[in-house]
Design brief:
Elements (H helix, E strand, L loop, with lengths): L1 H15 L2 H28 L11 H36 L4 E6 L4 E4 L1 H7 L10 H4 L3 H9 L5 E5 L11 E9 L3 E8 L1 H38 L5 H32 L7 E4 H18 L3 E5 L5 E4 L1 H18 L5 E8 L5 E7 L6 H4 L23 H11 L3 E7 L3 E8 L4 E2 L1
Parallel strand pairs: 7-9
Antiparallel strand pairs: 1-2, 1-5, 3-4, 4-5, 6-8, 8-13, 9-10, 10-12, 11-12
Bound molecules: adenosine-5'-diphosphate.
The site of adenosine-5'-diphosphate has 20 residues, from α10 and α12.
Length: about 425
C-alpha cells in the first residue's frame, strides 16, 4: 500500500514540477500519522479493562490482536490465582488451629480467624510486629531463639469475650524463603488434664506418706521384739519392712518429680563445689559399697565449681552412684570423674564395671517406672524413678544425660553441663 501511495504522490509531484518536496511532505505526514496510531495502541495496551481493539487491519491491527489475546490470557490467569488464593484462605480459616504468616522480622503478613481469637489480633494488625501485640516474656524469647521443632506452651492473652483459651501452644516453622509460619493451638484441656494428673500424684503421695511412716514404726518395733522368737516371723517382718521402705522411697521420689514438674523457681545459679558434693555422697553411700566390697574412686578437681542448685546436684549424684552400687558387680569398681568434652562442655561421669544394659533399653531408661527386668534380680527395691528424676534435674540446668553401656562390661552415666555453668 505504501509503495502505491509513494508512486501516486511521486507522479503527482512530477506533474506539478516538485516531486521531491511533495514526497517529503507525504512521508512526514505518514510518519506523524503512524506515530499517533502507535501511541493510541500503546495507551490501549496499558488499559487492562478495555477490550475494544483499536485497529482491525494492517500490521498494527495484527499487533493489537496479539496484545488482546495475551491480555485475555493474563486476566484468566489472574482470576485463577485469585480463586486459588481464596480457596486456600477458606481452607486455612476452617483449620482448628491458628495460623499466622510472619516475615523474618516478625511482621504479621496474614492470619486466620482462629489465630485472631487465640492471640487477640485485629484486621488492622496486619503489618505490625507480632511481639508488640503478643506480650509475653516466653513468647519474646521463643521468637528470638527458636529452633524449628520447638514448641512452647504459655498462658493465652486475656480477652474480654467469653470465648476462653487459658493455655496455648505455639510452634514456628520456616515457610518459603523469607517468611515463617506461626501455628497456635488451644491446649487448655490437655493442660488441665495434665494438671489434674500432677495434682493427683502429688496429693496421693502426700496422703500415703503418713500411714507408711506409722507402719514402718510398728514393723521396726515388732522386728526388735521378735528378735528372739521364731526365725520365720522375723523373716516375714523383714520382707514387710523391705516393701515399706520401697513404698516410702517411691513416694519420696514421686513427690520430688511432681515438685520438679511444677517448675517452682529456686536458684539454679548458686556456686556449688563439686568435690564437696561428691564427698558428701561418698560418705552417705560408703557403707553400702563396703557391704558389696566395691571400690570407690572419686577424681574431681578440688577447685571445680558448677553454677547449679546444690540439692539438685546431690540428688543426681545420689541416684547415679546409688545405681552403680546396686547394679555393679560385687567387688566391682566405681569411678566418679570429670572431664571437658570436644565442645567445651563439662562432663561429670559415674562409671561402673557391672553387668551393663542391653542397647534396646537405653532410650527408655529415663521413663518413669522403667526398669530392666534382667538387671533387677538382686535389687528388688528399686522404683524405676531415679533416672527420670536425674533427667528432669539436668534439664532444669540445660544439661543432658548421656548413657553409654555395654552388656557384660559396665555402664557410664554422663551428666553434660554447658560450658557457661562450669567454673574451673
Ligand atoms: P531404679 O534403680 O530405682 O530401678 P532408675 O530409674 O534409677 O530406677 O534406673 C532404671 C533402671 O536402669 C534400673 O532398674 C536398672 O535396671 C537400670 N540401671 C540403672 N543404672 C544402672 C547401672 N549402673 N547398671 C546397670 N543397670 C542400670
Amino acid at each position: 500500500m505504501l509503495l502505491i501511495w509513494l508512486a501516486v504522490v511521486g507522479l503527482l509531484g512530477i506533474l506539478i514540477g516538485h516531486p521531491v518536496e511533495l514526497l517529503a511532505i507525504f512521508l512526514l505526514a505518514f510518519i506523524v500519522f503512524q506515530y499517533r496510531r502507535l501511541q493510541q495502541l500503546y495507551r490501549w495496551s496499558k488499559r487492562s479493562n478495555d477490550n475494544n481493539v483499536p485497529f482491525e487491519d494492517g500490521l498494527l491491527g495484527q499487533i493489537a490482536e496479539d496484545i488482546f489475546q495475551s491480555k485475555k490470557q493474563r486476566l484468566a490467569q489472574k482470576e485463577s490465582v485469585k480463586y486459588q488464593l481464596e480457596r486456600f484462605k477458606k481452607l486455612i480459616s476452617v483449620f482448628p488451629d491458628g495460623v499466622v504468616i510472619l516475615s523474618l522480622s516478625n511482621e504479621i503478613q496474614w492470619f486466620n480467624d482462629q489465630a485472631a481469637r487465640l492471640l487477640i489480633l485485629k484486621k488492622e494488625d496486619t503489618g505490625q510486629l507480632i511481639n508488640h501485640l503478643v506480650r509475653h516474656p516466653r513468647f519474646t524469647s521463643f521468637l528470638k531463639n527458636m529452633t524449628s521443632d520447638d514448641a512452647i506452651v504459655m498462658e493465652a492473652p486475656i480477652m474480654e469475650t467469653n470465648w476462653s483459651a487459658e493455655k496455648i501452644e505455639i510452634r514456628l516453622l520456616p515457610y518459603g524463603d523469607d517468611e515463617r509460619l506461626l501455628l497456635v493451638r488451644d491446649v487448655t484441656k490437655v493442660e488441665r488434664t495434665n494438671q489434674v494428673r500432677k495434682d493427683f500424684v502429688s496429693n496421693a503421695s502426700h496422703e500415703l506418706r503418713t500411714p507408711l511412716t506409722v507402719m514402718k514404726g510398728y514393723v521396726e518395733m515388732l522386728l526388735a521384739s521378735t528378735a528372739n522368737e521364731k526365725a520365720q516371723v522375723g523373716a516375714s517382718l523383714r520382707k514387710v519392712d523391705q516393701q515399706v521402705v520401697k513404698m516410702q522411697t517411691m513416694i519420696e521420689e514421686l513427690l520430688t518429680l511432681s515438685r520438679l514438674e511444677e517448675g517452682k523457681v529456686e536458684s539454679l545459679d548458686s556456686i556449688v563445689n563439686l568435690r564437696g558434693v561428691c564427698e558428701q555422697v561418698k560418705s552417705e553411700l560408703q557403707s553400702a559399697a563396703q557391704q558389696r566390697k566395691q571400690i570407690f574412686n572419686f577424681d574431681i578437681p578440688p577447685s571445680l565449681n558448677l553454677k547449679a542448685n546444690k540439692s539438685s546436684v546431690l540428688t543426681i549424684m545420689r541416684n547415679l552412684v546409688g545405681n552403680a552400687i546396686n547394679y555393679a558387680d560385687k567387688k566391682g569398681e566405681i569411678n566418679v570423674g570429670w572431664l571437658i568434652d570436644d565442645q567445651g562442655n563439662g562432663v561429670l561421669y559415674v562409671k561402673d564395671n557391672g553387668k551393663g544394659i542391653a542397647a534396646r533399653h537405653l532410650a527408655r531408661l529415663t521413663e518413669r517406672f522403667y526398669r530392666v527386668a534382667e538387671n533387677n534380680v538382686m535389687n528388688k527395691t528399686g522404683t524405676g524413678l531415679g533416672l527420670a528424676i536425674v533427667k528432669h534435674e539436668l534439664e532444669r540446668h540445660e544439661a543432658q544425660l548421656r548413657i553409654d553401656s555395654t552388656e557384660g562390661k559396665g555402664s557410664c552415666f554422663q551428666c553434660v553441663f554447658p560450658a557457661e555453668r562450669v567454673d574451673q
